[in-house]
Specification:
Layout lengths: L1 E5 L4 H12 L3 E6 L2 H15 L3 E5 L8 H9 L5 E5 L15 H28 L3 E7 L10 H20 L6 E7 L19 H10 L6 E5 L3 H10 L2 H7 L2
The protein binds NADP nicotinamide-adenine-dinucleotide phosphate.
Length: 243
């Protein structure tokens, strides 16, 4: 049985790939840079003696990433888990981006997960597998930064709900994590209000919950309270805060 990690080369994806390999899982790792992927695969194979295949795709430009992943899966055991810790954010995502740049953000953060899920759904239904998507605390309320990124993350929540609505419990496990700040490339150099979480700390729990039902939850769990507070601020107060 194969687990596919899209966005496996760094941050949370890398921590998930490591945890899955530690448990002896056959892996297909996807990210943009072939050299990064080969180095990661060699390391995992050496340390955990597992089969690791790689696929380099630029998800900002790839028209049909699902078809490319299906082709790579032909040589591997059937897929049981699809994890999508792929993402890109930009500091200048504030309505000043060109159409091309905002299109790239939407392609990576929304179109790629949607297209990959669509292509892999029949095989994942056959194995009663798990699809794991990653939202963000950045999407809790709209604001003048991370505009396209947060819009894509909010849309992922709708996609998650549609998937759950379309599948009986047990026919497919559909899981969404709304993540708080993680110490990864995505937040590197950012002034955060508090310390970011090491992705290696949350990866084991996330892997343990594969195949264990459908849900949407905040991670770390304390971000549920942060999201609740952000959403309960009256509009005039939120607007002043986020100018
Ligand atoms: N870090 C946070 O604080 C935070 C907070 C909330 C939500 N999230 C979400 O959590 C997930 C994991 O994020 P992270 O912090 O681990 O990010 P990260 O360290 O920046 O890793 C992102 C992954 O996405 C891949 N990726 C980006 N652009 C790509 C492209 N054009 N083609 C193919 N792959 C591409 C990267 O591969 P390459 O290096 O090859 O491009 C990398 O493997 C993402 O969905 C992110 O939006 C993160």
């Amino acid at each position: 049985m194969t687990a596919i990690v899209v966005g496996a080369s760094s941050g949370l994806g890398r921590a998930l790939a490591d945890e899955l390999a530690r448990r002896g899982q056959v892996l297909l790792l996807v990210a943009s840079d072939a050299r990064d992927l080969h180095a990661l695969a060699a390391d995992l194979q050496l340390r955990h003696e597992v089969e690791v295949a790689t696929l380099a795709l630029d998800l900002g430009r790839e028209v049909d990433p699902g078809a490319r992943i299906l082709a790579a899966l032909a040589a591997l055991p059937p897929p049981t888990s699809l994890l999508l810790p792929v993402g890109l954010s930009r500091r200048d995502d504030d309505f000043t981006l060109s159409a091309g740049a905002s299109g790239e953000l939407l392609a990576i953060n929304l179109h790629a997960p949607l297209a990959i899920i669509g292509a892999l759904l029949p095989s994942l239904r056959e194995t009663r597998g798990t699809i794991v998507s990653f939202g963000s605390i950045a999407a809790a309320r709209g604001r003048g930064q991370n505009v396209a990124y947060a819009a894509a993350k909010r849309a992922l929540e709708s996609l998650h709900e549609s998937l759950r609505q379309a599948h009986a419990p047990g026919a497919l496990h559909v899981q969404l994590y709304r993540l708080g700040f993680l110490a990864t490339n995505l937040t590197f150099g950012m002034a955060l209000p508090w310390a970011a979480t090491d992705p290696a700390r949350i990866a084991p729990g996330l892997v343990r919950r594969l195949g264990k039902g459908s849900f949407a939850r905040h991670l770390p769990r304390r971000y549920a309270l942060v999201a609740l507070l952000l959403r309960s601020l009256p509009w005039f107060a939120w607007r002043r805060l986020r100018r």
